[in-house]
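Researcher: Dear colleague, please comment on this protein.
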Amino acid sequence: MPSAFFNNSSKWKSKVYSFDFVTFYEVYEGINVFYDGKDEQLSYNFDISAGSNPNLIQFEIEGADQIEITETGQLILKHSFGQIIQSAPVAWNISEDG
C-alpha cells in the first residue's frame, strides 16, 4: 500500500470488528444464510424454512476462468491465482426432536 494511506489519518478506521459467524436473514423469502469463518476458510449454509422454495437460491460467479462440477458434486473455480474448491452440497432436516 502507498505510504500516503498510512500517513493520512482521515483514511484510518477504528472499531473494525472481526466475526467468526454472521447471519443474514430473509436473503430470499423464507431463507437465511449463515457465513462461518474457520481456519481462514469461509463457508456458508442456508436455513430454508418449511414451505420455502430452495430454487430461489442463485449464485453469480465472476473472475473464474473455468468452472467445473466434479462427479462427487464439488464446485471447482479455476482462476489466474489457482483454484477454489467448494464442497458438495449437503441437505438435512431438523425434526421437532432435534
